[in-house]
Amino acid sequence: MILLAIESSCDETAAAVVRDGRHVLSSVIASQVKEHVIYGGVVPEIASRRHIEAVSGVVSQALMQAGLSSPQLDGIAVTYAPGLIGALLVGVNFAKGLSYATNLPLVPVHHLRAHTAANYIAYPELRPPFLCLIASGGHSHIAEVRDYTDFRVIGRTRDDAAGECLDKAARAMGLPYPGGLNLDKASAGGDPFSYRLPHPSVQGSEYDFSFSGLKTAVVNIIHNAKQKNEEINVKNLGASYIRAVTDCLAANTEKAARASGHKKIALAGGVSANSVLRRTMAEICEINGWELFMPPLPLCGDNAAMVGAQGYYELLAGNIAPLSQNARATADI
Predict the structure, then answer these.
(1) pLDDT over threshold 90, residue 40
(2) Are 134 and 161 in contact (CB under 8 A)?
(3) Which of 331, 316, 315, 326 has the alpha carbon at shortest distance from 76?
(4) Tell me, what's the pLDDT at 152?
(5) What is the 3-state secondary structure (H, E, C) of 254-288?
(6) Residue 200 — pLDDT band, cuts 50, 70, 90?
(7) Domains of the chain: which residue ranges?
(8) Where are any strands of DSSP class E within 84-242?
């Protein structure tokens, strides 16, 4: 079964052709990073306009690279939620038009399910059930993947997402967008114990996250230093901050795995590219004798290949959308 997949939830316009949920025949990404860097983050209106300009060409290129045309496809998968609503609408409406023109089924895919499915591409042997830490700029979830289309959220952030906190802290330290990536690079070799930062927890919800206080703490450190005309050691502060964020993510995931009995642990989402988180989770899984699945770096960020991977299982489950399908800025996984 071959699916064309479209992703436009944030600032990447992407299309891919995926066979049987595991084999990527083509993957094309038009990134807007260089345009948004001057603003220090994604500007939703600009992102939407660039998606409109890019989506047709990106889809055509994906089909051309795969050497296929629409009669050889079995369906069209598209990210419908969650994300920037204007950006999502571009992909959803383009996919709906293709579905109508080709009479191919339209398959709606949840963005977080798609991030999880990136692991199916990297690890053909991976099958549910397993536990997945999904961390990105807008989301921080610990989800039990009971089946390909059956997810149960065990823990989630109560305020800010881990990726957002990394981005905001990076900007406060004077690092360019994308903040999380540049913070990871800038803090390499820094002392992760040089600055004392809180490790917040949520009372009564041991698997949930809370990052807003941690973000406030690092901003206060920077502001206080500026008021005293003291220099901030970005390498050390960045390393300390990343350690605090990843400790929270890893500790809750470990607790959830112990409580649920899962011995297969997966990472997903843009924050799963963070070198400290990958190293920390590898150490935890080695100590506990668990299997760890981490997408290769190109599959951590937004891409359409992961949408096609999850779309295959959604289609097998009969999840076909009508042409009235709408985009949604928020949606439960």
Answers:
(1) no
(2) no
(3) 315
(4) 98
(5) HHHHHHHCCCEEEEECHHHHCHHHHHHHHHHHHHH
(6) confident
(7) 2-116+301-316, 128-299
(8) 106-110, 130-135, 140-147, 150-156
Residues 143-169: pLDDT tens digits? 999 999 999 999 999 999 999 999 999
Q: What is the fold, at CATH topology level, of the domain defined by 2-116+301-316?
A: Nucleotidyltransferase; domain 5 (3.30.420)
The CATH number assigned to the domain with range 128-299 reads: 3.30.420.40
Task: Report the C-alpha gap between 245 and 247 in whole angstroms.
Answer: 5
The C-alpha torsion from 124 through 79 and 332 to 317, rounded to 10°, is: -50
The pTM (predicted TM-score) of the whole model is: 0.96
pLDDT per position as a tens digit, 86-141: 999 999 999 999 999 999 999 999 999 999 999 999 999 999 999 999 999 899 99
Q: Any idea how long the chain is?
A: 333
CA distance 58 to 74: 19
Write out pLDDT tens, residues 45-76. 999 999 999 999 999 999 999 999 999 999 99
Closest CA to 12 of 58, 75, 81: 58
Rounded Cα gap, residues 13 and 209, in angstroms: 30
Tokens 């299982």 locate to 313
Helix (H) or strand (E) holding 249: helix 234-260
Domain pair 2-116+301-316 / 128-299, same fold: yes
Asked whether 106 and 95 are in contact (CB, 8 A), the reply is yes
| Cβ neighbourhood burial of 191 (10 Å; 0-12, 13-18, 19+) | middle
Q: Which amino acid is at 95?
A: A
pLDDT of residue 187: 96
Instruction: Note whether 12 and 115 are within 8 A (CB).
Output: no
pLDDT of residue 203 exceeding 90, the answer is no
